[in-house]
From TrEMBL:
<dbReference type="Pfam" id="PF00892">
    <property type="entry name" value="EamA"/>
</dbReference>
<dbReference type="InterPro" id="IPR004626">
    <property type="entry name" value="RarD"/>
</dbReference>
<keyword id="KW-0813">Transport</keyword>
<feature type="transmembrane region" description="Helical">
    <location>
        <begin position="96"/>
        <end position="114"/>
    </location>
</feature>
<feature type="transmembrane region" description="Helical">
    <location>
        <begin position="265"/>
        <end position="284"/>
    </location>
</feature>
<dbReference type="InterPro" id="IPR000620">
    <property type="entry name" value="EamA_dom"/>
</dbReference>
<protein>
    <submittedName>
        <fullName>Chloramphenicol-sensitive protein RarD</fullName>
    </submittedName>
</protein>
<feature type="transmembrane region" description="Helical">
    <location>
        <begin position="63"/>
        <end position="84"/>
    </location>
</feature>
<feature type="transmembrane region" description="Helical">
    <location>
        <begin position="296"/>
        <end position="317"/>
    </location>
</feature>
<feature type="transmembrane region" description="Helical">
    <location>
        <begin position="211"/>
        <end position="231"/>
    </location>
</feature>
<feature type="transmembrane region" description="Helical">
    <location>
        <begin position="33"/>
        <end position="51"/>
    </location>
</feature>
<keyword id="KW-1003">Cell membrane</keyword>
<dbReference type="InterPro" id="IPR037185">
    <property type="entry name" value="EmrE-like"/>
</dbReference>
<keyword id="KW-0472">Membrane</keyword>
<feature type="transmembrane region" description="Helical">
    <location>
        <begin position="126"/>
        <end position="144"/>
    </location>
</feature>
<feature type="transmembrane region" description="Helical">
    <location>
        <begin position="151"/>
        <end position="168"/>
    </location>
</feature>
<feature type="domain" description="EamA">
    <location>
        <begin position="32"/>
        <end position="167"/>
    </location>
</feature>
Length: 332
């Protein structure tokens, strides 16, 4: 992982305005950051295909196995990078350790809901959760941080609420999978921001999965006593894919961390839609999930809300950059 002094500095201030201090960042780092970000989100976008390949493993066994092998893979990374000492310092710091336990609980809910949706033919609704996640994050900023939104941001939130209502009426029920995914991941991001740069990607995932290990073991025991475990009983390839859940969980996270150190937040904001777009296309074109008119209308409203929010974010970043340039030009 590159040193923290390499990337452009990014400030996020109240109201959602983004300030980017570009500094002297070589173009080579920008291109590598772009490659890291695109690769991370493409990998996240391909997760439905990966999870479907491990059939007949059910969602409870799959998530439990994912927790265990993510922890083992992170332990390997900590060993290779000789980072156990700083990790144990974080582990014995109560504020950080318990904060990461809460983050672990939220990501567990997110993983379990997502895998349940994918394995039950609801990939499109799962993609909706990650489409509306940026809007939910804005809403959480108002609720938890008392941030004041600009009019255009309120318009984006309003359009997204209308979209959920349209989808609920069209489906005859609330899109719970999408809402749980959006809010669990939004809250997860909020909790992670509380620990800030003190916890890097590997240490964070290690702490989260350490707290989740007893839950994963109990879940495996429950599956074993009821439907029976599939790991090690289907084929060597199937077992390898289950073991690989640790890798496919940690690697995109590390790529994302590397990208976020090199790219301005606005760039990351654009690229984050790669994953739900891939998931949506996979659900519609490959799995042939139903897309009645009201569902298209609901998704169109969500995409409109995202366009409004993204354009406002980009405009805010430009205004901040202009203001900083003017301030720099008036210095003696």
């Amino acid at each position: 992982m590159p040193p923290a002094s390499d990337p452009a500095d990014i400030d996020v201030v109240t109201g959602g305005t983004v300030t980017v201090r570009t500094g002297a960042v070589p173009e080579r780092l920008n291109r590598s950051g772009l490659a890291y970000a695109v690769t991370a989100y493409v990998l996240w976008g391909m997760l439905p295909l990966y999870f479907l390949l491990v059939a007949p493993t059910g969602p409870f066994e799959l998530v439990a196995v994912r927790v265990i092998f993510s922890l083992l893979f992170c332990a390997l990374l900590l060993t290779v990078t000789r980072a156990w000492k700083p990790f144990f310092r974080l582990l014995v710091t109560p504020k950080i350790s318990f904060t990461m336990a809460l983050a672990g609980a939220l990501i567990f809910v997110n993983w379990q809901t997502y895998v349940f949706g994918v394995l039950n033919g609801q990939v499109v609704e799962a993609s909706l959760g990650y489409f509306i996640n940026p809007i939910v994050t804005v809403f959480l900023g108002v609720f938890f941080l008392r941030e004041r939104l600009r009019l255009i941001q309120w318009i984006s939130v309003g359009i997204s609420i209308l979209a959920v209502l349209v989808l609920a009426v069209g489906a005859g029920g609330v899109p719970w999978i999408a809402l749980i995914l959006a809010f669990s991941f939004g809250l997860y991001g909020y909790i992670k921001k509380r620990v800030g740069p003190r916890v890097d990607a590997v240490a964070g995932l290690t702490l989260e999965t350490t707290w989740l290990l007893p839950v994963a073991i109990l879940q495996l025991v429950f599956v074993g006593l009821t439907t029976g475990l599939t790991i090690g009983t289907v084929s060597p390839v199937h077992t390898a894919l289950l073991v690989g859940t640790g890798v496919i969980t940690a690697v995109p996270l590390l790529l994302f961390a590397a990208a976020s150190r090199r790219l301005p937040l606005v760039w990351m904001g654009f690229i984050q839609f790669f994953a739900p777009v891939i998931q949506f296309l996979f659900g519609v074109l490959v799995l042939h999930e139903e897309m009645p008119l009201e569902r298209w209308i609901g998704f169109a409203l969500v995409w409109l809300a995202l366009i409004v929010l993204t354009v406002d974010m980009a405009a805010g970043a430009r205004r901040s950059a202009v203001q900083r340039n003017k301030a720099a030009g008036t210095r003696p």
